[in-house]
């Protein structure tokens, strides 16, 4: 007699080993722990920020309410992070393509090590570099921009004499997130199915046409994920922005002037040591806004990635 379907299915089942059960349990516990920690952080921020959310406007630093206090900080955070991402993401993709498909093997390995090293440099080093080297170098170029392109709101001026402007902060943030995005995208390009690349070249495609048909579609979700990872670091960056930026408050698109909005993270770092009472709750409330912003950005990125069907690859 031939075995039934249920018997054949039962015969194919491999008994689960104790190590597999332990690993599965540990993985599940780690995932649950992350959710618990995330919920705990959110609850802490909400509880500590609640007094400032319900306090009269005149008790909030500045005397105009929590919304007026947080809005310039939120604006500065978004302005610096978005412009840094616009500068870094295309350059990171270009560098990843060069390292993967154009550079000689030895040069590619050396550049890979250099990229990984730049990703590990502490943010305070970037801040000191921006303050001591980059800021003075931008004084003359920003003067030229103000004189010749002053009709554009970003270069309205008058230019800062010290160079400690939002433009320098954006450049420093772009340099900081560049190696992170490059490293992730480079690894995604390396995972492109070799058969797809060879098939494109066999059909007569040039190297650039092959890149457009195989690596770029394959790595699209990774490019989005890497960009959101870099954006998350730019949104939460503290010391580099605090060192570079000369803050005077207000909401402005002028990137080269003396009036620069601060960022949420930098403002917390600078104001927290001397704050007491409701001022501390106000800073925590701004941290709650940054927490929510980062969460929304990552959820949006995940939604974009999930909407794209997985690139199947060759069998």
Automatic annotation (TrEMBL):
Q: Which GO terms describe its cellular component?
A: plasma membrane
Q: Enumerate the transmembrane spans.
A: 21-46, 66-99, 111-131, 166-185, 238-258, 278-301
Keyword vocabulary terms for this entry:
Cell membrane, Membrane, Phosphate transport, Transmembrane, Transmembrane helix, Transport
- Residues annotated as coiled-coil are none
A Pfam entry, by short name: BPD_transp_1
The record's annotation in InterPro entries points to: MetI-like, MetI-like_sf, Phosphate_PstC, Phosphate_Transport_Permease
Cross-referenced SUPFAM superfamilies: MetI-like
Instruction: Drop me one GO molecular function for this one.
Output: phosphate transmembrane transporter activity
Q: Biological process GO terms, please?
A: phosphate ion transport
Where does the UniProt annotation locate this protein?
Answer: Cell membrane
Q: Which residues form the ABC transmembrane type-1 domain?
A: 74-301
Lineage top rank: taxon = Bacteria
Q: How does it sit in the membrane?
A: Multi-pass membrane protein
- Tell me its family: Belongs to the binding-protein-dependent transport system permease family. CysTW subfamily.
Query: What does this protein do, in the record's words?
Result: Part of the binding-protein-dependent transport system for phosphate; probably responsible for the translocation of the substrate across the membrane.
**What's the name of the protein?**
Phosphate transport system permease protein
Q: Which organism is it from?
A: Saccharomonospora marina XMU15
* Organism placement in taxonomy: Bacteria, Bacillati, Actinomycetota, Actinomycetes, Pseudonocardiales
